[in-house]
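Slide 14.
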Amino acid sequence: MRRRFVVTSIAIALATTTLAACGSDDDSAGGSDKDAPDSGPVSLTYWAWAPGMDKVADIWNKKNPNIKVTVKKQASGDDLVTKIITAAKAKKAPDLVQAEYQALPTLVSNNVLADVSAETSAIEKDFAPGVWQQTTLGTDSVFAIPQDSGPMMFYYRQDLFKQYGLTVPTTWDEFAETARALKEKDSGKALTTFSSNDSGLFAGLAQQAGAKWWTADNDTWKVGINDAATKKVADFWGGLVEEGAIDNQPMYTPAWNKALDTGKQIAWVSAVWAPGTLTTAAPATKGKWAMAPLPQWTKGENATGSWGGSSTGVTNDSKHKAAAAKFASWLNTDPEALAAMVKEGGIYPAATAAQTGSALAKAPDFFSNQPDFYTQAAAIAKGTAPSAWGPNVNVAYTTFKDAFSKAAKAKKKSEFEAALATMQSTTFDDLKKQGFEVAQ
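Slide 15: predicted structure.
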């Protein structure tokens, strides 16, 4: 079932974290219902962190009385990955789990997720190829169904671009020239900042450039974090920081919020969820921003990276995998379910048909000046580049924060190159230490 992807069943570092027992009967999918025949009433448990998922499940339950889904709210990120792996080792995993795309290889290599390709082949067409690929991990198997996505785009202050006579960049070369032009006109302002405190941003930029950080061939992994595409991205941003064309401060700090709110920073490379962040970070700028496609490495292309997003997986512990896959398919393709997830959870659905109209017919309030916001976002999302995640994304992400934080403070392009090399070697060594077969 796992074909060439699963190279070992050795648990990753996340799974070895000492935890209090988290596979209790209340949290797990255990109980007599799990032994019930598929033809009779079935009870499924779904671990999720997105808000309002219980209300979405209620819609399903009213229409499908023989397959009842109970949502158990969980923490997100590494906490959930650790908990689900621990529960699976105790054979007490839930039937379904919400999993971030970059966590899927970790869950698959720890034998948590089932292959649901037989039950989901008909819905592949509902998603952009680059998004669907993240749930297949480059194999013929399907380990989850895309739930929400985070296509990246370029946000800029319309009023300040007009004031300084700037043109919205369509290529990264133009982006660099725009940053320099702004500095020449007002040295107290910056186009944007290079931030080292969110690894997902850098990963998405590398993805857009064509990076493949992890690849697997039969029983052997290859780590390519320092591939040509990622080096190009690191050199680009390192060069702008070194020459002072952009800032080097981290995002999400009071200082960063103030820079956005006062117009000291007039643009932000972000994702489709940015309006929510700007609403709290820069409330005084409502109605002054606009969104455009991410600048391209080659003029005329339409490629973007992903920053965030999650999927719905069926676990190997589930005694009712077909029923669980049926619910997961409904959750992520049914118009009523998708509209409810947008309304209750504020997600940007991965299903392409739900990215415009219905719940997303109206632009975010913060972008009322751009009524076609979601129409543009949907066009951008179609160009989502494929990703290549591996079993120790957590190690790579942590190393990025440490190494690139030092590089950003040093303001030297060479330090960015060194940071990328550190990220490569640390990730490679960690895979070997865990017992994976790794090729240079």
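Speaker note: The domain at 13-150+308-371 is CATH 3.40.190.10 (D-Maltodextrin-Binding Protein; domain 2).
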